[in-house]
Amino acid sequence: MLDVRRMQVLRAVVTSGSVTAAAANLGYTPSAVSQQVSALEKQAGTALLERVGRGVRPTAAGRLLTEHAAVIGRHVAEAETALADLRAGRTGRLAIRYFATAGAALMPPALARLRREHPGVQVDLRLTDPRDPLAGMRDGTADLAIVVRPRERVREGVRLVPLLDDPYRAVLPQGHPLAARRVLDLADLGGEPWVNAESPDGACLAFVLEACAAAGFSPDFAVESEDYATAQGFIAAGLGVGLIPRLGMGSRHPGVVVRDVRRPEPVRAVYAAVRETSLAQPALRGLLDALQDTAAG
Questions:
Q1: Which single residue of 41, 110, 228, 284 could bond 248 by disulfide (Cβ 3.0 to 4.6 Å)?
Q2: Cβ neighbour number for residue 51 with a 10 Å cutoff
Q3: For the stretch 98-125, what's the b/e string if a residue is b when 16 or more beta carbons lie within 10 angstroms of its beta carbon?
Q4: What domain range is 233 assigned to?
């Protein structure tokens, strides 16, 4: 295999017209340059230079390798520039995964800031699989994922960064007897029919069930719904009551009332899961800062 570094030495000799001049330009001794060219000739299996007076000129093989060395040199220079741009956050690509309510509340302002600060960075933005929100972290296809704190142990090389605590609120139909109270004990809802707003495949249903168990009851789900907007519609129609996290109440149905809950107050913790190797990218660090600032606001 031809040595690329030796090809660049040959190119310097051919360009300058002599071994001595090439050595001066490269900062080598003339004997070191001659040794590099001789070693390249052995690899090529043919002579690459011939003497002409006090200088040298390339053979046909020497011209061929010099031309390829020039192309390689340009490609290396382009690669170095591209790498510098990536390290500085001027270019690159981030793969971001999120769940729907976090996407609506956190992602738009954070991505808008990322675009202002790193306009050359492309973003691959997709919803997580509710059954396995950290799949992209394991297979390396995602740099950052917005998740509810997982119950299982997070794999090595993934860092969990807290963003916010998202408390659940009681959602009741207009005119419900409990709607007159400003704050409800969770046990007050124990005898009511319930509308389940959580996906059975996701992690959030467990927060609701555990809180109800702590309050001394198991909710009687009369209606199943896997999104918060639809659940509000069922509640507004009088089919039951429910618990919906604050982030899920971005678009409130006019036929419901929302009340704080205590004893206990269910809360889901929202985190950014980040591949530690991706933290070397300035754009990702900038996005993480933007998410934390958005969550704090």
A1: 228
A2: 10
A3: bbebbbebbbeebbebbeeebeebebee
A4: 166-268
pLDDT tens per residue across span 138-151: 888 899 999 998 77
User: What's the length of the chain?
Assistant: 297
Query: What's the confidence (pLDDT) of residue 100?
Result: 87
* Residue type, position 31, single letter: S
Measuring CA to CA, which residue among 173, 143, 141, 178 is closest to residue 158? 143
Please give the helix or strand (H or E) that residue 120 lies within, else none. Answer: none
Start-to-end C-alpha separation, the chain:
59
Q: Is 136 exposed, middle or buried (0-12, 13-18, 19+ CB in 10 A)?
A: buried
Question: What six digits make up the tokens of 232?
Answer: 């509000």
Predicted local distance difference test score (pLDDT) of residue 60: 87
What CATH number does residue 238 fall under? Answer: 3.40.190.10
Count of domains observed in the chain: 3
